[in-house]
């Protein structure tokens, strides 16, 4: 079900958002105090009318200094009964756009394999909110979540291609797909090497939108399932590997947001997805193999489970040949990033301070957190083995997210500016607006920051 607001209605019931310690709205009477309402985050107090019918609700925001993301999603996801609701007031420090988006994100349910979405409470878009824009942003996030949540049996390289074709048709983008042995003919050897052992052929999916303006290249890692290859993962480590295409899913959601909000106007957008499954068979690539990339750099494979950077490298080298003004890579790339920052805060890497500052500010402003990490040049020797130009899995286990970013940066040469996001793509437990499961990270921050990133 696409995210949507309710049409304006005189019958919509009022919600009063209340900060802890603030005076209650006129007309609330003594009922909130008698029922113990304390305006704790997400707390709901249903208000009775004179006839005993439901007359409205108070919604607790907690303390302003500790406010969390997508606060109003609490109301959508928890105690409000079905019906049509409206915001009766906008208290100081309360962002109507963030509230409206949080409500829509709270509508999300993944029901492909179980049941139908319930018809929950609906919200009239708050006054001053661009409802169409908020719905477009939520729709892009829903697309990302649906793609990540779908198991690999139903979301392999061919289904990623189908999703890309559907999006291209909707937004008027051009699409090109290079599949199987044709990858070798088009000099994309590392994408082919990683994906050749799978039952479904590897491919490079390319979408292009716009003919004038700055060129923005977006590369999303599309490893639809990662067994680890011949360096086979333990079973427990494979449990979430359907999400290893989270970079591709986030990139497609971002492109939908850019197109539907109108932010794509005046830009040339190029989206590249190397879509593969890292499987095991007699022709799987091996530890110790040396691969020659599109760029001509040789790569010693010291771990077949560090495959994401290999497929990204060929796609990035292809994108860099057109000298984009900005290149962005999105990838569920390293466990090291999760150890450093946990599941909620993806690190990002960028050498240009102005671009990085714009992205950091936007991330905080729209509640899509990111944290800048360094391209630490003294670690470069760690990605340079003895018998090849590059090492895909440096030994030692330290600074794994940084060394992966340094590896990718070698293939971004030619781009005006380069930003790499090492995302997780998964919500490990339910939170406001973010049910357990697949989640987009970084797309809303990029959408908000892009004009300044290109300035």
UniProtKB/TrEMBL annotation:
Pfam families: Peptidase_M17 (PF00883), Peptidase_M17_N_1 (PF21337). Keywords: Aminopeptidase, Hydrolase, Manganese, Protease. This is Leucyl aminopeptidase family protein. SUPFAM superfamilies: Macro domain-like (SSF52949), Zn-dependent exopeptidases (SSF53187). GO terms for molecular function: aminopeptidase activity. It comes from the Bacteria. PANTHER family: LEUCINE AMINOPEPTIDASE-RELATED, PEPTIDASE B. The keyword Manganese applies. Residues 303-310 form the Cytosol aminopeptidase domain. Belongs to the peptidase M17 family. InterPro entries: Leucine_aapep/pepB (IPR011356), Macro_dom-like (IPR043472), Peptidase_M17_C (IPR000819), Peptidase_M17_N_1 (IPR048816).
